[in-house]
Design a protein that fits this description.
331 residues, mainly alpha, Serine Threonine Protein Phosphatase 5, Tetratricopeptide repeat, 17 helices, globular
Length: 331
């Protein structure tokens, strides 16, 4: 009897669960075999993605690093760069600009040393642009996203093209070209709605576009994309990462419509979802919104506690806390 048969069956179950978007099941089955060398690189990539989607960002980062090292060791340089990209993508979106940037530079050096002309060059340019926009350098980011979009079209990579066009659109809005930026949002979201990109890209695209439309006070688009995000999340019961963010966006819409009690109930659901596993960045934003809702309802003690929690979770409690103090006459 083959001693590896039970492990192989577990890996097969993990692969099947991943294909069915049963992220929790995929994570459990593949992580059980994670220490076994029988896991192929593609299985490591599946495990890293599944871990991220169930909210286990630290584990996901570790597996992406392991996949990167495995690929580099066997000379699959382009694939090693792709793994490094996803690791950097997660770190940058978590606000870890130094670590994320370091992985971008490391992967870029790998490609440059081999003088490879591949789509991964575009992915790394996208990651560099993401680092720039998060650092406040919009002009550099705009140029980088534009380069990445061209690379995506050249290599017919829908995922890269979609992510880059959304980044380009966000930059155009910051640069005052609002109509052009929103048009790029709408164009890019066609691929998202058609599920032509991976689950990580789908979730990130929805959240980025919703945030961009919120900044413009485009409530129609905010509601439309939030409804689409809700439908996508509902189709994946084991999804953790974007479900909490979806509930948060729904609560924000309720707040804007004056439905404060409903919004408070929704934001509590978001907090509950984001609290497990620990360390999800959106939890701070959810706590801040809870503070805002309590402030609007005149619930001073509850608002102060929520703002304090938001601050402890890394979300600046301003301007909400200042507005609370102003209402209290404490200026």
């Amino acid at each position: 009897m083959d001693e590896n048969l039970p492990m192989d069956e577990g890996i097969d179950r993990g692969r099947d669960a991943f294909d069915r978007q049963a992220w929790g099941h995929a994570y459990r089955e593949l992580s059980a075999a994670a220490d076994d060398e029988s896991l192929e690189v593609e299985d490591l990539e599946r495990l890293a993605a599944a871990a991220f989607l169930v909210g286990r960002s630290a584990e996901s980062s570790d597996v992406w690093q392991r996949a990167h090292q495995r690929c580099a060791a066997i000379g699959e340089v382009a694939r090693a760069a792709r793994c490094a990209f996803w690791l950097a993508f997660m770190l940058l979106n978590n606000g870890e600009l130094a670590r994320g940037g370091g992985w971008v530079d490391r992967a870029q050096r790998l490609l440059d040393d081999r003088k490879l002309d591949c789509v991964e060059q575009g992915y790394l340019r996208y990651a560099a642009a993401l680092r720039s926009v998060l650092s406040g350098d919009v002009d550099t980011a705009h140029a980088g996203f534009g380069y990445a979009a061209k690379a995506g079209r050249r290599f017919r990579d829908t995922e890269l093209t979609t992510l880059a066009r959304i980044g380009e659109g966000r930059c155009l809005i910051y640069l005052g070209e609002v109509d052009q930026g929103v048009a790029l949002f709408d164009e890019a979201m066609v691929a998202v709605g058609a599920r032509e990109v991976s689950a990580i890209a789908v979730g990130d695209s929805y959240c980025t576009v919703i945030e961009g439309c919120q900044e413009l006070f485009d409530l129609h688009r905010v509601a439309e994309w939030t409804a689409a995000l809700t439908h996508w999340c509902d189709a994946q019961p084991e999804l953790v990462l974007y479900r909490g963010q979806c509930l948060l966006h729904r609560a924000e819409i309720m707040q804007l419509h004056g439905a404060w009690s409903d919004a408070l109930a929704e934001v509590q659901r978001a907090c509950d979802r984001l609290a497990d596993p620990l360390g999800q960045p959106a939890l701070g934003a959810a706590s801040y919104l809870r503070g805002e809702l309590h402030r609007l309802r005149g619930e001073v003690t509850e608002a102060e506690a929520a703002y304090r929690s938001a601050n402890e979770l890394g979300r600046d409690a301003q301007p909400g806390l200042a507005l609370l103090r102003l209402a209290q006459g404490r200026t």
